[in-house]
Amino acid sequence: MKKVPSIKPLRLLVVASCFSLPVLAQKQSGEIDSQTFEVEKKKKIELPPANRLYNKLQPFTSEEDNRKLNYEFRTPKLTLGTPKITPTVLPVNGENKEDEGGNLNNYVKVGGGNYGKIYGETFIGNNTEDLAYDIHFKHLSNQTGPVDGQNSANSENRLKLNGQYIGNSFKLGGTAFYDRDNYYFYANRSAPNAEILKGNIRQTINTFGVQVGLDNIDNNKFIDYSIKTSLYRLSDRYSAAETDWGTNFSGSVPITENIFALLNADAYVSQRTDAETFKRNLFSVKPAFKFSYDAFTVTAAFKAVNETDDRLKINRTVGFPQVEVDAVPLAGVHVFAGYGGDLNRNTLRSLLGENRWLAPNVTIANTERSRDIYGGFKGELGPSFQFEGKVSYATFKNFYGFNNDWLDSTKFAVVYDADYIKVLTVSAQVGYQYQNIVRSTLRGDFYDYNVKRLEAPWGRPRSTVTWNNSFVFSKKMFATIDAYYIGGLKNKNFQTGTTHNLKPIVDLNLKIDYLLTRNFSAFASINNLLGKNYERYLYYPQQGLNFLAGLSFQF
User: Fold this and answer.
1) Do residues 332 and 379 touch, judged by C-beta distance below 8 A?
2) How do residues 20-46 score in pLDDT, each as one tens digit?
3) Segment 406-427, tens digit of pLDDT
4) CA-based nearest residue to 77, from 409, 439, 436, 347
5) Is residue 434 classed exposed, middle or buried when 0-12, 13-18 and 19+ CB atoms within 10 A define those classes?
6) Host H or E run for residue 53
7) What does the alpha-carbon distance between residue 272 and residue 365 come to, in Å, rounded to a whole number?
8) Would you say 291 and 297 are in contact if contact means Cβ atoms under 8 Å apart?
9) Cα distances (Å, whole numbers) of residue 128 to 222, 226, 375, 435
């Protein structure tokens, strides 16, 4: 397939990339990623079993789970819904394993399903008093897809090695990984398979990466610190590539009993190759002071950011004052308000993580959140209910979005709004948990875009709702039921001048895991129970009703 030369967009698109929305990544298997529960981090770090160190699928135990769900509204990018193919295979209820010599942390899983789905995964790890390590491999493929048979097939391979050493006062960890994704540009394919050369619509993304981190774990040390450095290399089937090296430091020093000095610093050096080769760098430093007294906390900071881009001829330094106030008027209830801004870094890797069907030579620029005024509340009612709400009114520049390319509607261009626009975001969520038996989270996010240079906020939802539930029915059976809604999506075909209002996405998924013996379990996942071939992106329908079933061996 010949490369399509880059063109300047006729119109620029606004994207709410800094909204407080958990990632809703739509899977090629017709499923949307479940919301992740964040567990409250404790300062004192103890070496846990290997399965907890690296977030592998871990067995359930009979002990009561006293961890609280920690809901945090952050400002990550609003992921449009990458068609990833990673169905969640449920953990194994290992309650009776404690009596038989402890939990079995290693496993091998195999399974299959419709659309020619093939699944295999293995995890092997070990840990001692101060050392833990593991290796994790996963393969998931669909031999056919939602349209045109094998021309919409896909496969995913993941290999990851982890290691962690805990000394008396520090923690040293490292990760190395290799990812390979293979898929096809199957949009608008109406001709029979025999008339299409698969090699002309095929794409393969290879990513190698390594990361090393050092953290202080000694509460008695005067200076607290954390430093991490990572390097990755991404390449595709054509001529696009990206090399990125990033280093992040954070530290704190107590000045008095109630005042702390904080420092965060980041350095990113990257090189991108496509039609041409150029460098994109970003350096930032953010000193801050935090005052905390009883039920009142104030944090004031100033973030200075320098960005350079050879292709866009950018070399500038901008500053963002930041302040946040947090008060506890009632026990267990926080009320917060703040003002701030930031420069959000975009890379080819991050954009492909949101939309894998990018056209060649896409423009990559960072997004500026120049002013963000926000406020909200969070807290809990008793041991079982948690709640949080937030309203944000922010000004953005260079917000990006994805719309079908002007020359080839089967691929997507990244378009930006160079003007300053206002976006109102209202977010709320409630959670319920009962020991380790029931967990339920309901979340809604609603957006109002005051676009200027656009007909509409292409590719961005007006509303999203997620409802995630997990149940332990018995010592041997565990299940999850997840529901998703995404509405208000629009895309435009600039070749025909037609605007398309995409139908709202309603997705319902069910997963069950059943323990057969101490070493064997069976799992089944049924996704898109409503059987809708919805489109998260224009011209890319997703799989309808699909399932994955298999066996797991733990050792």
Assistant:
1) yes
2) 333 333 444 334 333 332 323 333 333
3) 999 999 999 888 899 999 999 9
4) 347
5) middle
6) helix 50-53
7) 12
8) yes
9) 29, 23, 45, 29
